[in-house]
Design goal:
Rna Polymerase Sigma Factor, Chain: A, hydrolase, eight-stranded mixed beta sheet, alpha/beta, Rossmann fold, hydrolase activity, six-stranded parallel beta sheet, 749 residues, mitochondrion, 18 strands, RNA-DNA_Helicase, nucleotide-binding
């Protein structure tokens, strides 16, 4: 028995010495003693882990992924049960008895093992013991004593707890993880900003009230300044205005940096997208535009960072008055006062008492607002069928194409007098609109949990869009707003009459440094899992919330199998792309894979991947693909500013992106032809089937007018076939009933 045990342990030793070392290591032999010592130890551990913060919320342990721990494989010929001179089922029986003990479950809970973790840890612990060819000496002795009746199953708890902490390493560092994820004092993240006394000026007012204009005037007169906007178009507009006013200004976005001077010297003024602003560079004046977006579930963190972190003597904040209270409270925590300047709309805006009802009632200067691409295609097709030209603007179009479409619509000498657009016109474009017409007042949204919903537009959204009508300085001195359908008009009036609810909280997002510290403590966790645990443990006060991280997690899961260091992986996961675009997501995956092999992504490689050069689109599907290729070029340029050596051909890519923008403009100018080509090609089969039912002429006419789609045709065909069958069966049934009735009358006679 002694020699067999030594063989199991993989070394030779004397039994008495082993027995003594095991006793010395545990200092515990009987069940009562071990329970007493464990209770005291766990109580001490519990009090230390809480850190005096009894109000801390319990972590979401469903996010804790166990680290795989393989059973020990040794040279022993027999299994643990045999070496213990007891049958294997007796070992299993005692392990299950240990699992069911209420005292053990309570001790587990005191050491951070809730019911779920306790169960997972036990399953792993049992598998480890039963499948290992050898175990440690002290565990072997305890198991042998329990099987012989000389020990108690509670004696296994120290070994079980050690095993649990091996597969759930976060149990041993929960204090550190809580400190890292403590987001209750964001102002302290920016010591440079806290070192100066900043003056905060809030320019509050609705769309078309001149609030941003006054802030920009101060920006232009300052010795140095930075403008932070939500869109590349807005940053580009300020960049152009500033340089036109002989104030040298650089442009900085995620994809490009344009210097005001030919020698590429940094100018004193910068216009940038808000995510790109520097919190280390001192400025005299900073302008933060559209401050109400601090509540945005996905991007709100960027406005919080700019507001708390910009090192500027004066910070001019522009936006809705609904954000005044929150900004004031945030600045109270930094010891800075807020001066509020209120503005009123410069031109009147009237909500009409009648709906448009028909596209035959369109007038020059009308803008029809849709909330989906399909509606854009349908409406523009119907307008073209009436002999009118229309411009088209939606979110996924390149900035250059949007500007060209806006220019076409604004040009008094251009025959295009109608605009069909999504809510992308809400900011970033100067448009001469007389009347806003809501094609619908419901739109897809994403709630705080990241779930998609279809809901009525908010008051803030309605005002932002409606306010584009009657822009100050345009040919229309008064703006009008209405709906396409009469049923929507009353609800739109109610929405516009309501006050915008106050902005209640500012967004936050984990920083790369915080995630790196998390990874140090949890080296085996995936980046997606690290983010989940971070958010689960994070603590924020009532002024803040943690932004939605679903897009980040989607990219993290997508590239998880690619070997990248944590910092590079984090950068790839923050890339601005639409995860609904398979081609763009696939390209990011290829970028990451080649990056991991340390192979530069050259211009030639990108051209092969995108099949450049590309021809003008012949249908909507090809136009959508061109838009995706444009996004791929954007992605390359974005990564080229983070990894210049691995994405070396930014200048060449920027050149072909401009050419692609021109190609997309050709497609958008002919969008009604593309729609016709798409619909006629897709519905040709269905139309042929309908002709066989004698309905071809009507179907073709509806197709030409854009009033039917392929899916609608197929559905109609199916319904007609069902009606045809039911008609035959119904007629046969009726005839049978009539014959039965005649037979009954004959019998009566």
């Amino acid at each position: 028995g002694k020699h067999a045990l030594c063989a199991l342990l993989g070394r030779r030793c004397a039994w008495p010495l082993l027995r003594l070392s095991a006793r010395a290591g545990l200092a515990l032999r009987h069940g009562g003693a071990i329970r007493l010592r464990l209770a005291a130890a766990s109580s001490s551990s519990s009090s230390s882990s809480s850190g005096g913060g009894g109000g801390l919320r319990a972590p979401d342990t469903s996010l804790f992924v166990p680290v795989p721990l393989k059973p020990v494989e040794g040279a022993a010929e027999e299994d643990v049960g045999a070496e213990l001179t007891r049958p294997l089922d007796k070992v299993l029986k005692n392990l299950n008895k240990f699992y069911k003990r209420k005292e053990i479950q309570r001790l587990g809970a005191e050491n951070g093992l809730d019911a779920r973790l306790f169960h997972q840890a036990f399953i792993s612990f049992r598998k480890y013991i039963m499948e290992s060819s050898s175990v440690s000496a002290d565990l072997h002795i305890i198991l042998n004593d329990i099987c012989c009746g000389a020990g108690h199953v509670d004696d296994l708890f120290p070994f079980f707890l050690r095993h649990a902490k091996q597969i759930f390493p976060m149990l041993d560092c929960m204090d550190d993880l809580r400190k890292i994820s403590d987001l209750r004092l964001p102002p302290n993240w920016y010591p440079e900003a806290r070192a100066i006394q900043r003056k905060i000026i809030f320019h509050a007012g609705p769309t078309n009230s001149g609030k941003t204009y006054h802030a920009i005037q101060r920006f232009l007169t300052a010795k140095s300044g930075i403008y932070c906007g939500p869109l590349k178009l807005l940053a580009h507009e300020i960049f152009q205005k500033s340089n036109a006013a002989n104030v040298p200004c650089d442009l900085v976005t995620g994809e490009e940096r344009v210097y005001a001077t030919e020698d590429a010297r940094q100018a004193s003024h910068i216009a940038c997208t808000i995510e790109m602003c520097s919190t280390n560079t001192p400025y005299e004046v900073a302008v933060i535009d559209e401050i109400q977006m601090i509540r945005d579930p996905a991007r709100g963190w960027a406005w919080t960072r700019a507001l708390l972190g910009l090192c500027a003597e004066e910070i001019h904040v522009c936006g809705e008055s609904a954000a005044i209270d929150l900004v004031t409270e945030l600045m109270y925590t930094t010891g800075e006062e807020v001066e509020v300047r209120n503005y009123k709309r410069l031109t009147p805006l009237t909500v009409l008492d009648y709906a448009l009802e028909s596209l035959d009632n369109l007038q020059p200067g009308d803008c029809i607002v849709c909330f989906s691409k399909n509606d854009i295609y349908s409406v523009s097709r119907q307008i073209e069928a009436r002999g009118l030209e229309c411009a088209v603007i939606y979110g996924s179009l390149p900035p250059g194409t949007k500007l060209e479409q806006a220019k076409k619509f604004n040009d008094p000498n251009d025959p295009c007098k109608i605009l069909v657009a999504t809510d992308a016109i809400g900011m970033g474009l100067n448009l001469c609109i007389k009347r806003i017409i809501f094609n619908s007042i419901v739109k897809p949204t994403v709630n705080e949990k990241g779930e998609k919903e279809i809901d009525s537009i908010t008051t803030s959204q309605a005002l932002q869009i409606a306010g584009r009508a009657g822009r100050f300085g345009s040919s229309f001195k008064q703006g009008e707003v209405t709906t396409m359908h009469r049923d929507d008009l009353l609800q739109l009036k109610e929405i516009l009459s309501e006050s915008v609810p106050p902005v209640k909280a500012a967004g936050l997002h984990p920083t790369p440094e915080q995630i790196e510290m998390f990874a140090y403590h949890l080296p085996d966790a995936t980046l997606s899992n690290l983010i989940d645990i971070f958010v689960s443990l994070s603590q924020v006060d009532g002024l803040y919330f943690v932004c939605n991280i679903d897009d980040f997690k989607f990219l993290a899961d997508m590239i998880q199998h690619i070997p990248l260091n944590l910092r590079s992986r984090y950068v790839f996961c923050t890339a601005p792309l639409n995860r609904k675009e398979p081609f763009v997501c696939t390209t990011l995956l290829k970028f990451a894979r080649q990056f991991s092999r340390n192979e530069p992504l050259t211009f030639d490689w990108l051209c092969r991947h995108t099949k450049w050069p590309l021809a003008p689109p012949k249908n909507i599907k090809e136009l959508v693909h061109l838009e995706a290729v444009h996004d791929v070029f954007d992605l390359y340029l974005w990564l080229s500013y983070r990894f210049m050596d691995m994405f070396p051909d930014a200048a060449l890519v920027r050149d072909i992106q401009k050419k692609l923008d021109d190609i997309i403009q050709i497609g958008v100018c002919n969008i009604t032809k593309l729609i016709r080509a798409s619909q006629s090609g897709a519905a040709s089969g269905a139309a042929e089937d309908l002709k066989s039912h004698g309905r071809g002429s009507l179907a073709n006419r509806l197709l030409r007018e854009g009033l039917l789609t392929q899916e609608m045709l197929r559905q109609l065909e199916s319904e007609w076939q069902d009606q045809h069958r039911s008609g035959r069966y119904g007629l046969a049934s009726k005839r049978n009933d009539q014959s039965s009735s005649k037979e009954m009358r004959k019998k009566k006679k």
